[in-house]
Amino acid sequence: MKAVIKAELVVDPNYALSDGFVGVDGNNVVYIGKQEPEGFDDAELVVGGEGRLLRPGFTAFEIYPVLFPFRYRIPTGKVNVNVVTSSMSRTDAFYFSLMAGYKLLREGVTTAVIDGPFIDQAGRALRSLGLRVVLVAHVGCEREEWGTYSSLRERWSSDGTSIAVKVCGQRELRESAELAASENHTLLVSREVELREINVSGRRTVALGGGSRGDIDFIKSKGLGITFVPSYEVYRFSLGELKPSISIESSPQISALHEASVAISRYLLKVDEAFNSLTSWGYEQLGVKGGVIEQGKLADLVVVNLGEYMRYPLDTKAPRETAIFSESDAETVLVGGEVVMDGGVPIGGDPGDLEKAEERMREFGRK
Q1: Of 9, 175, 228, 258, which is the most exposed, with the fewest CB atoms less than 10 Å away?
Q2: What is the third-level CATH fold of 2-56+292-346?
């Protein structure tokens, strides 16, 4: 697809451009500048304009889409995960995940790392909305029924869906690391697993659990990836030098933006670091060439309309603050150059499914 996006403010991890144009051809960004791009008279999509902010799509790690209707009850202990999932059908799981995916899309999340029960239904639901999906395959975890590597690879690898390997046991660490490296997967390492005993380097090894890990100094010295939930982070130092990504886990808001705001307010990240944690750092950890608005990089792009009442100011002097703290939903979302949301409405999926999902959520909510 060829697309032209005009924005009053273009916000990237490395720059901010006022009154800019971005041209997309195929999967990638091919033009960034102050003038309309040449050779785009035949563009299939022209969007944006005054009051629009354009930014890269966000990543969000460790999302449990099927638990979306119970996101307030589970963290507070009012309901047990096993009880909830035992009463679900596969159709329920698909519908609940669809609602979670819609929420993520409206926030401008373009890449979702998903975990949890009914992972096949969750992956299918988010994929139907156009999100880039990374499925978490468990090794040595108590809940391997949520998705083992062999089963997920057999069912999903043929269509290009990415898989991340999550290791929960110390004994399985070495074998899991070798598997992830050989198959070019990201290795997610549970907070209970120490990384010191193996020789791992590079950003494709991601430690879960943030600054509370016991091997934090090793992670820092080796430049490994790390992810954390700012709402639950207890370690008392800034995490910016570790280039973390943001995880959702059981945060009731299921919001990467909310977690970034918390990270800033608790001095866990500076504003620019928080923006990077949502964009370029997360993409880097997954080995995906996106999270930035640069020529030749994936066109995972989000247009937000800040020209509506009570959405101003669109502050060119504080571009990343504007992108993080704005309350506006995404207006247009592109994933890999394809439009997946326009006018705040998802392009993919069946609109009737969203209605059925909402009805089913209300039924479950009354239980």
Answers
A1: 175
A2: Urease, subunit C; domain 1 (2.30.40)
